[in-house]
Amino acid sequence: MGPTSMPSVPLMGLCTVTAAFLHFFFLASFCWVLTEAWQSYLAVIGKMRSRLIRKRFLCLGWGLPALVVAVSVGFTRARGYGTASYCWLSLEGGLLYAFVGPAAVIVLVNMLIGIVVFNKLMSRDGISDKSKKQRAG
Length: 137
Hints:
By secondary structure, the chain is mostly helical. The protein has one domain. The chain contains four helices and no strands. The protein has helices at about 10-45, 50-75, 95-120, 130-135. Helix 1 packs parallel to helix 3. The longest helix is centred in the N-terminal third of the chain and has 37 residues, at about 10-45. The protein is elongated. It starts with 8 loop residues before the first helix and ends with a helix. The model has no long low-confidence stretch (mean pLDDT about 85).
């Protein structure tokens, strides 16, 4: 296979699957960081209900990326997942925004949660429980 020839169909299929999995797992890593920020916020305000929160975290961490990738694959019919040069989202057709958009929103929300948590911790009454204050320093 020469440098200008197109890869065979099985290789393109493997590249498409690889790109879809990369899309999913990269978005999942951003979503799991968001769950950590959310958990930090809940810990600071003192509202931790483990069973319900764990289910929501699982839905956010795995479900949201799966939904984004499923919608992206459905709308594009997997065109744009992988090119002749690389196994990632194509720059043509705007499919890359199916990753950049959600990732940017998650980063923004993480920053906002971080600011709220920091302000809450730095405020005079940031930690209401005296035993927690002593443990925190």
